[in-house]
Structures are given as C-alpha cells and as structure tokens.
Amino acid sequence: MGGRLGGKTALVTGSTSNIGRAIATAFAAEGVHVIVSGRNGERGAAVVGEIRAPGGRADFVEADLDGSAAVSDRLAEEATRVLGGCIDILVNNAGILPGSTTPDTDEKTFDRVYAVNVKAPYFLTAALAPAMVRAGGGAVINLGSWLARLGIPVGTLYSSTKGAVETLTWAWAAEFGPQGVRVNAIAPGVVVPPARVARWAPSASRSQSWAVPGVGSGWPPGAPSTSPVSSQYRSMRGSPAS
After folding, report:
1. Maximum CA pair distance of the chain?
2. Is residue 233 pLDDT above 60, yes or no?
3. How far is CA 107 from CA 69, 111, 124, 137, 187, in A?
4. Model's pTM, two decimal places?
5. Which of 36, 58, 76, 160 is the most buried (most CB within 10 A)?
6. 158 catalytic, yes or no?
7. CB 114 within 8 A of CB 107
8. How many Cβ atoms are within 10 Å of 97's Cβ, its own excluded?
9. Which one from 114, 122, 158, 233 is the annotated catalytic residue?
10. pLDDT tens across 157-214, in order?
C-alpha cells in the first residue's frame, strides 16, 4: 500500500474505535506503518486486520492511558520498539467524555477526565517529541474539540480539557516547532459512529449519506487527519483545524 506518507511511522492513541480508528486507517492508506493503541485487544486486532487486508502495515499495542507518566512512557517505548526505533507521527486521540453538568461532577470524575484527556497526551508528547527532534523532525497531532470554543450547558469538564489540549498545541508548536517537530490540532464537531448512523438513517439506501444537520457521519475522505504531516503543510504549526 503506497501513498504520500510512505515509509513514515505513527502511533495513534485510542484508535480501536470511532475517530481514532478512522485516523489510523487513513494514515495506513497513505503508506504509514501504524501502531493501533487502546484498552481492548479484540477491537485493536480488528483494526489491524482491517488495515492489513488491503496491504497496509499495522500492529497493536495495548495501553490504558491513565495519565501517569509511567504508563505513557511504557507505551512510547513499546511502540518505538515495534516500529523499529522511530516514531514520526504521534496522534493524541484517546479521551473520555462525561456528559455531566458542573454540580453533578465529583472529584474522582474530574481527576480521571483530566488524567486521560490532558495528562496522558502531555507525558506521551514529553516522551516522544525529543526523539523526533533527535531524528530530524516529526509531527504531533492533538485532538481538540469545537466545544473548547463554544459554551454549552453540559460537558463543561470535557470542554475545559479540550481547551487545555488546544493551549498545549500552541505552546508545543512554539517549543518544538523550531526544532523540526510540527504540532497541530484537529477540532472535530460531533461525529456519529457508522453503526449509529445506520440505525438513525431513514432508509438503508441512504444510510451512507444521511446525517443529522451539522453533525458529521464518520470521517470523510480528505479529512485533515493526515494533512498536518504532509510536506506541503511544512509551515503550519499550532493550528486547530475544524
């Protein structure tokens, strides 16, 4: 399987389902050797099989990112080993979304969401970006959210974590950009998983094209997931692409 990113390697966290899965398969279609990572080995094996079927390259590394530096370091080390010593692209996609209101959020939930959504990508980037610098360059893509810039009455905790991630994107672009590592963010809107689209679709014949107005139904071809690492985007740094 060839493509504009042939020969590159990538680690995509939270890539056993939904957006992460779509990003992993999109990179593989462009020729990237992808590490699929997540908590569920069965789902991870399914994504790897999906990528390998048409000739793509992928391996699964299990990781339950809990925000600790130790877990992020272990994932970085194992993914680097499986990929032969070099990771060119890091996609910080893993995250959790509690839909609770502010009064309904307890301290345990607050700490867990910040651990997964902010601390985990922070320590994973800290583990991998210096190696990218030593290798001569690389790219980090963070998953932000439209909710970071639009107030809604539920999900305040999640929104604040994505605001933190987008701030980190700007800061990391300033820190690592001059050393050859591009850092950008993708800020998707609501994405409906394919199974739910099919269930909500008015008819089977329209299930692939139907979507709630303003709500994405899957990850369309040409989406920005692979764009920030393409050579034609060398000058783009710190941008949250919506």
Report:
1. 53
2. no
3. 21, 6, 24, 39, 27
4. 0.83
5. 36
6. yes
7. no
8. 16
9. 158
10. 999 999 999 999 999 999 999 999 999 999 987 777 666 655 555 443 333 332 333 3
